[in-house]
Structures are given as structure tokens and as C-alpha cells.
Amino acid sequence: MSNQVTDTTGLGAIRSLDYVIVLCDDLEAMKQFYCSIFDFLIDDEQPGKLICFRVGTLFLCLRPRGRQYDGPTIPETSAAIQLSFRVPPADVDLAHETLKQRGVDIIEGSTNQDWPHRTLFFRDPENNVIEIFAEIHQRDTLSSPTGTHLLVQS
User: Is residue 74 domain-resident?
Assistant: First the structure.
């Protein structure tokens, strides 16, 4: 299978991802989390139906679960999605401190991975995994990367 785009119509016309919609069981709790933890400003809100935040060039939207094709609520021990937000390298640690001050339960603190990323992981109220990451220089990762995303504790 070729990586080259040969058709520029229909599905071949896709050039960007513009919206990410997170399905929610408790829309108000999720709204409060994303507003208070990230300080995201609401760009569009249709009360009880949709809340959208602009994050860079993308809209991150929250929508209540309820359409017939949404499926059941994700079990409490599972994540439905992982959202990854890129920041400059020094801001991973700053974000970690801010999250601790705001009482957020950290899954994995600031860590240099064995691929060139420094990461931080936590969850939103509906157990979706949130990652704050920065691209780092290869010299800051394991000397012999495994390719299996092993942790390098800092």
C-alpha cells in the first residue's frame, strides 16, 4: 500500500483534523474540569448539547453520550480516548506542578521516555487519559532505545 495520496476528492480530500468530540456521561463535570484545570475558554456552547474549546487550530468539544450509535458508557477502569497536548520541554514540569496544586491525580509524573518525548499523564473525570508532552533531544532518552516505550525515570 502506497503512502502517496492519489485521489484528491472524497476521502482523499481530507487535509486536517478540525474537531475532536469527547462523549460524556456528565457534561457539566467535564466542562468544569477543562475550564478549571486547563483554563480553556469556551468558544461555543449549546447548553446540555455541546461545549467547544479552541485549542490551537483544533476544536476540542464535549458532547453528552446519548445518540444510538454512541455505545455504552466506558467502564470506570477504562479510558475511551487519550488526548495529547504538546508544550515546550520546560513546560512539562511546570504543568506537573500546576496540576498537583489544582489537586489533579497524576497517573505518571514528568518522565523522559525512551523515544524523544518528555511526558506527563493524568485523567479527566470520565477516565480519559490526558498527556502533556514535549519533544526532547534523543540524547535525553535511553542510550539504547527499545522502541517499546519503556520509562526512563528522571
Answer: no
